[in-house]
Hints:
Elements: E1 9-12, E2 15-22, H1 24-30, E3 34-37, E4 42-46, H2 51-70, H3 72-86, H4 94-119, H5 121-130
Parallel strand pairs: 2-4
Antiparallel strand pairs: 1-2, 3-4
This protein binds zinc ion.
Amino acid sequence: MAKWKLPGSVKIYADTFSVKEMPLREAEAEGLWGHISYTHRLIRVAVGYGRHIAARTLHHEIGHAVEAETNTSVQVIKEVLAWQQQDSGIRVSEQELVEVVREMIGRGTFEAIDTVWRDNPGVFAWIGRGIGRG
Ligand SMILES: [Zn+2]
């Protein structure tokens, strides 16, 4: 058995997600390291692959919750489409478009994650301590 424990919960804006272990058998069968259920406010993390994978998986699932909460991808697509229509006379290179999309995703996601960092210092400390460990 693992000598470490997952954090009990993560607060994502107004919602608190429970964090529970995903049995290794299920993780292997599904080909997953983790899963998030918005309906059940539940994040499950496979602990059988070690501390490092568990830390990165929890971080990944928190990222999904932030993205879902902020609708970052949908918002970016809408803004890029509006921007393209507005400037339809101007030729925009693919590289320029990629940079605009990157900037918007960065702004949306990282500004949003500020709140999650503030509300979960212990969870992020746990993630940080786990990266690079067994
Ligand atoms: Zn994922």
